[in-house]
Amino acid sequence: MADIAGLAASAAGGGLFGLIGSVIGRAAGLVERRQEQAQERARWEHEARMLDAQMRAKQQASEADLRLADVAGGWRGLEASLAAEAAIGASYKWVQAVRGVTRPFLTLLLWLITGLVFLGSGAAARGEIVETATFAATAATLWWFGDRGPRRDPR
């Protein structure tokens, strides 16, 4: 009987140790899975941050391209305007006098409009209106004085 009791105790002890080993193995597996999931989550967050950074970079590049196209178009317009002005040539004296007075009159008028808008409008509307009027007045002034610079060859 002692042999049977020893055999039963050995079987129970082996079963108990096997069960404990299984539980420890399962617990280790759970810890490993949690670590893998945390690593995957960190990788996904990193990828999301990288995609966001790439998207912002593409957006900034697109905005820069738009600004460049806008500036280039403005310069092309100025070149076309100068070419059209040069192509007019000589005309009657009174036509040249009217043409000569038109630009200064329009320039002064634009500066007057700018001043009136700045002094007379509310703060909410002032920003956009003054910005546009200032742009127009400055462009007219610079166009006037830029076009009236000393000429190398007389017309």
The SSE string, one letter per element, is HHH
- Radius of gyration, in Å, reads 41 Å
**Structural class, from helix and strand content?**
mainly alpha
Please, what is the oligomeric state?
Answer: single chain
What is the first-to-last residue Cα distance? 134 Å
If helices are DSSP runs of H or I spanning 4 or more residues, what is the number of helices? 3
The percent range for strand residues is under 5%
> Uncertain spans, ≥5 residues at pLDDT below 50?
none
Gross morphology is rod-shaped
Number of distinct beta strands: 0
User: What is the makeup of the main sheet?
Assistant: none
Description of the molecule:
The protein has 2 domains: 1-88; 92-155. It contains 3 helices and no strands. Helix 2 (93-120) runs antiparallel to helix 3. It is mainly alpha-helical and 155 residues long. The longest helix has 87 residues, at 2-88. 90% of the residues lie in helices and 0% in strands. Keywords: Membrane, Transmembrane, Transmembrane helix.
